[in-house]
Every structure is written in C-alpha cells, then in structure tokens.
Write a structure and sequence with these properties.
By secondary structure, the protein is an alpha+beta fold. The protein is built from 17 helices and 13 strands. Strand 12 and strand 13 form a beta hairpin.
C-alpha cells in the first residue's frame, strides 16, 4: 500500500508539472510584454498586437502543439512523390494531415501576411517567438522564407514581377496561399556563396533560364523559389550573382526542376529539405541583376538571420519554463530539486541566457521595424549591419546550451521523446546554429564589416547610450579596444575576434537588461565581465541566483 502511494504521488507530481504549462504563453511572459509595452509606442497598434499575441499563443498550445507532436513522430515526416499514378512527373512533397492543420492555424495568425505592410517587425517577431515554444514545428522555416521573399519582392522587384508573385504569398488561408523558399547553397560552395555555379541565361523578354544544382533546399515543397544564379558577364564571386523568383509550376507541370532526394536531418524534421536540379527553369529577376547578391543578403538573408534569432529565443523560453516547473514539482532526497544549489545555479543561468537573447533579438527587432518601415537613419542602418549577425550567432549558440541544460534538469526523463518536448527542441536548436551561416563564417563577416564600414564606433555609441554601470562601461571599452586590434591585425582577428563578439554580445545584453528593468539578470551576467572574476570567490553569487529565480 505504501509503495503504491509512493508511485502515485510521484506520478501526481509529474502531472502537476505538465499542468503548469501556461495556456496563454503571451500573458505568462512578463519580460516579453514589458518589451512590447516599451517599444510599440502607438497605443492602438500595441493593443492590437497584444490581442493577437494572446490569441495566437493559446492557439499554439491548443492546436499547433498536438499537431506537431503527431507529424514529428517517426514515419510521419515529409515524403517525396516524383510521379503521379499514370507516370507524369509532379515533383511533389506530401505531408501528414496534422501538418496541414498546424499550417492552417499559423497562417491564419497573419504572421506571414504582415509582410505586405512595411514596418510590422514587432508583430512578426512576437508571433514567431510564441510559435517557437514548439521548436521549428515544421512551419517556422517556411514562414520565415516566405516573409523574406515577400520583403524582397515588395522592396526590390519591378512592379510586374511584384504583382505576379507577391499577392499569393500574403494570403492568410493556408489552403490557398503560396509558400516560398530560398535556395542559395550549392554543393561546392556551402557558405562560400561566391563559388556558386548555377547559371541564369537571359532569353530577351526580361526572363531568364536557370540551370544547375542547389544542395540544401529547405521548404522543398514551396510554390515559389527565391534563388541566386550567376549571370553572363557579371564577374567573379558574389558580384556575378543575380537574385531570381522561380515559380514551382508552369501550366500545371514542374518548371524545369527535379528533386533528387529529401535530406534526413538531425532536427527540423517536420520541414522538408532536399537537393534540387534545375534545367532551364523560367526565372524572373528580383531587382537589378547586378544587385542580386545585395538583395539576397541585405533583404532575404538578414530577414532570416533576424527571425532565426527570434526563433532560437523562443526555444529557450520553453526550455526555461519546463525546467523551472519540473524542478519545482520534482522531489528527490526529501525535497523539491529546485532547492539544491547546483540546480538553482543551472536554472538561473538558463533564465539569464534566455533573457539576454530576448533583449538582443528585441533590440534587433526595433531596428528591423525601422528599416522595413523606411524610418531608419544611417546610424540605425550601420548598427543593424552589426547586430543582425551578432544576434543570430549569439542566440542560436545559447539555445543549444539552454535546451541541453533543461534536459539535464529533467534527468533521464528529459531524453524521452514522448515525455517532454525538449529532445525535439534540442535537435532543432542544433540545426538553427547552422542556418544562415555557421558561427565562424558570421564572426568573420562581422570582422570584415567592422573593418570596411567602421562599425565599432556605432556599437560603442549604442552601448554608451544604454550603459548604467561603470563595470559594464569598462568591459565595453576593453572589448572595443580588442575589436579594433582585430580590425588592424587581421591575422590576430581571424583567430580571436569570435571571442570578442561573445563579449560584445553579452555587454549589449547586460546594458539592455539593466536599462529596461531586468536588473537581476543584468547583474548575474555582468559579474563575469571582470577579467579577474572567479565564481569560487564571489560572495554575492547565491544572492544573485536567488534574485534571478524570484524575479
């Protein structure tokens, strides 16, 4: 009898943990709501966003989560169907019905449709963050790719091309909308986009014919492909790349492409990625062909980097929620495990890393809102050039650590697929780290930008405008000196600039946290900025952990 009661009590505590999942994730997220309140100054817009966010957050819990759980199970992922029943080539990707159910809810939120209106970054970031409590969920990548292509068409395309492709991308009815993809990676190039060899040949009527291979094609089922391809007489490297829109079908048949295979990925398994061959596919330039790389990176890739950072931050939020609730309910050695010092330190670290990513990604969202709305000044544009890369790098790196720590808090239970969402989030987080540029590639790009565009000045000015602490100001000064050394000594910079970026990202996050009411997290993250800091000698560490976990 006693044994049975013990087992029942343990299961009751697990049930209580699951019941702690917020039914309204937006309402339960005080730090996010505070950022919305301080950044969206127009009261009518803010009220509309809060209403939408609350409704969508509840829909993610009630509708999206169970659908994702179903189609992410083994054997229910996307399947390639190259031919129909009578042998006609169709090159389609088919999904479980639950995938369509999740897509219906997500597209109805107008997360993607907002792309048709300049300056809707706050709305899109908030909704994607809430969706990402379920990881990539099979639809975050298609939504982000569609947002990126819609922005490129709206901001860069000729009117006839824009009218041909954009309206279908903005449709909120999932059964009627068209989704977009962006295919840049080739087998010989990877991150070295300048090595791309796919060719775009003009035919004299304003269109091109694209032939070649694309190696990592996420959203392989998309209705519209945004692609880079080399144009005649365009020059070597990235200068010779045009940016093109390619419809999936013409007159009901595949438009000069064939899917070789779908990739069996570690994470983001509900979303189809493949290898695709193109043979004289009809293509339409998005903007001047000689500015193709500028369009692909400045609009499309930067949009994806921004929203990948937001998505990674949403992953962290879910890991923090689940780990803290589990630690509260789980008993071991006669007490809740949240009372053990090492568990508390892990939970505080997770919480602070999530909050740091939230503040960095929100700082970036403010810049995105101004850039897309056409109100950004030169300083905003330059700071965005720095922050969009640093935030993607920092947030995606942290997400893997935070979700892994969440799994550790759950112990062996945290590794069980049907016990917790964390194993799926962990796999997704690792994929997020490689999306839109590996960490080393991004670090080198930021170093090049700092040398060419003198970005460290504007970074220093932004830190100074936020900074309320002498310790943080001193750390910023030291990091900026090292950043300048990296600019002036490229060999030293190639080896050490990534660690400089780590420090600058932390400093920016700490400055924002402290300036915007998250002082406990800011203080926790600020202590290690002192080069002589040793946690073993930090008499105030326990107090700062307690402050983070009680806030």
């Amino acid at each position: 009898m006693c044994m049975t009661s013990s087992f029942d009590a343990a299961r009751d505590s697990l049930a209580a943990w699951r019941a702690d999942v917020p039914t309204d994730p937006y309402e339960a997220d005080g730090p996010l709501r505070a950022l919305v309140a301080s950044s969206v100054v127009d009261a009518e817009r803010r009220e509309a966003l809060e209403t939408r966010a609350s409704a969508f957050g509840r829909a993610v819990v009630v509708d999206v989560a169970p659908a994702v759980e179903q189609f992410e199970r083994r054997g229910r992922g996307p399947e390639l169907r190259r031919w129909d029943g009578i042998g006609r080539r169709i090159e389609r990707v088919e999904f479980d019905g639950a995938y369509q159910d999740a897509g219906t809810t997500i597209w109805a939120s107008e997360l993607v449709a907002d792309s048709g209106t300049p300056g809707r970054a706050f709305e899109q970031a908030t909704l994607l963050y809430l969706l990402s409590r379920e990881g990539e969920a099979g639809h975050a990548c298609p939504a982000v790719c569609t947002i990126g292509m819609a922005r490129a068409l709206r901001r860069r395309a000729a009117p006839d091309v824009r009218e041909q492709f954009l309206p279908a991308l903005l449709e909120r009815d999932y059964a009627r909308c068209e989704r977009a993809s962006q295919f840049m990676t080739e087998v010989q190039g990877g991150s070295d986009v300048g090595a791309n060899a796919t060719l775009a040949t003009p035919v004299g009527d304003g269109t091109y014919r694209v032939s070649g291979e694309k190696w990592f094609c996420s959203v392989a089922e998309a209705d519209q492909f945004l692609m880079t391809a080399r144009v005649p007489d365009g020059g070597d490297g990235t200068r010779g790349l045009g940016c093109f829109a390619i419809p999936r079908e013409i007159d009901g048949a595949p438009n000069g492409f064939a899917l070789r295979r779908l990739k069996d990925k570690l994470g983001t398994r509900g979303m189809a990625s493949g290898e695709i061959d193109f043979d004289a596919a009809v293509a339409y330039p998005i903007g001047p062909v000689e500015e193709g790389f500028k369009t692909a990176v400045g609009v499309v890739l930067n949009t994806s980097r921004w929203l990948t950072a937001v998505g990674a931050t949403g992953l962290m939020r879910r890991a923090v929620l689940d780990a803290r609730a589990y630690a509260h309910h789980r008993q071991a050695f006669g007490q809740a495990i949240e009372r053990f010092a090492l568990v508390r330190r892990t939970l505080a670290s997770m919480t602070c890393q999530w909050l740091a990513a939230l503040h960095l990604s929100w700082m970036l969202t403010e810049l995105e809102d101004a850039l897309d709305g056409g109100t950004a000044d030169e300083e905003t544009t330059r700071f965005h050039r720095f922050l969009v890369n640093v935030t993607k790098y920092s947030a995606s790196s942290a997400a893997t650590r935070v979700v892994r720590d969440g799994i550790e808090i759950l112990g062996g239970n945290g590794t069980i697929e049907d016990f917790s969402v964390l194993p799926r989030l962990y796999r997704d987080a690792i994929v997020y780290e490689s999306w839109e540029g590996t960490h080393n590639v991004i670090a080198q790009q930021v170093l090049n930008d700092c040398a060419r565009l003198q970005l460290l000045d504007v970074v220093g000015a932004r830190i100074e405008s936020l900074c309320t602490s002498d310790r943080v100001a001193d750390a910023a000064k030291a990091a900026l000196i090292d950043g300048q050394r990296a600019v002036e000594d490229p060999a030293w910079g190639a080896l050490h600039f990534r660690s400089v970026l780590d420090r600058l990202a932390r400093i920016l996050a700490v400055a924002s946290l402290s300036a915007r009411g998250e002082g406990a997290a800011g203080a926790y993250l600020a202590a290690p900025l002192d080069p002589s800091y040793r946690a073993e000698e930090d008499a105030g560490l326990t107090d700062r952990i307690d402050a983070v976990l009680s806030s």
